[in-house]
């Protein structure tokens, strides 16, 4: 089970991203579209459809040998889902007066949870399993680390390996 965290500035430009692979077991789900995809197809489009459908990975045969594709793990698909969820986050922000917005969007097996700071910095987390309390605690800890990093005049947020290490430790703890 994997989690993908994106920290976005108020202008929705990426500040930080993290991919965390959890050792906790998750229920496996297969998309209805995934069961209809042919595994023998050699087109690049089939690999994209497999990735978008959330199907388990298939081997695409190319002249240089088999290439593993799909599984919803392709980085560009994850970024597309996170980017597409920004409109849903804005809609929920207008309706609710809370920082932790819970699950704001769903795309196949991916659920998008969000946390918005008072300065309109968005924390977007893509995850496969429901864990509301763990995700809320993770967001609160990430927010605390983000504020501390912003208040430190001697270190940049992006270049700080300490910030990255603390985020990874928090992800391991809560996710």
UniProtKB/TrEMBL annotation:
CDD domains: TRAPPC2_sedlin. GO terms for biological process: endoplasmic reticulum to Golgi vesicle-mediated transport. GO terms for cellular component: cytoplasm. Gene3D superfamilies: 3.30.450.70. The lineage of its organism: Eukaryota, Fungi, Dikarya, Basidiomycota, Agaricomycotina. PANTHER family: TRAFFICKING PROTEIN PARTICLE COMPLEX SUBUNIT 2. It comes from Agaricus bisporus var. burnettii (strain JB137-S8 / ATCC MYA-4627 / FGSC 10392). It comes from the Eukaryota. Pfam families: Sedlin_N. InterPro entries: Longin-like_dom_sf, Sedlin. This is Transport protein particle complex subunit.
């Amino acid at each position: 089970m994997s989690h993908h965290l994106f920290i976005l500035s108020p202008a929705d430009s990426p500040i930080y991203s993290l991919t965390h692979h959890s050792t906790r077991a998750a229920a496996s789900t297969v998309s209805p579209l995934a069961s209809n995809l042919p595994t023998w197809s050699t087109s690049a489009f089939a690999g994209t459809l497999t990735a978008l459908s959330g199907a388990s990975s298939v081997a695409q045969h190319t002249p240089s040998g088999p290439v593993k594709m799909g599984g919803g793990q392709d980085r560009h698909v994850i970024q597309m889902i996170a980017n597409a969820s920004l409109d849903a986050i804005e809609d929920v922000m207008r309706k609710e007066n809370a920082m932790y917005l819970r699950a704001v969007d769903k795309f196949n097996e991916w659920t998008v949870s969000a946390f918005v700071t008072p300065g309109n910095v968005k924390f977007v987390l893509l995850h496969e399993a429901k864990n509301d309390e763990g995700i809320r605690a993770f967001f609160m800890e990430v927010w605390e680390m983000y504020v501390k990093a912003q208040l430190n005049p001697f270190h940049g947020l992006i270049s700080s390996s300490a910030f990255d290490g603390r985020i990874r430790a928090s992800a391991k703890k809560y996710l």
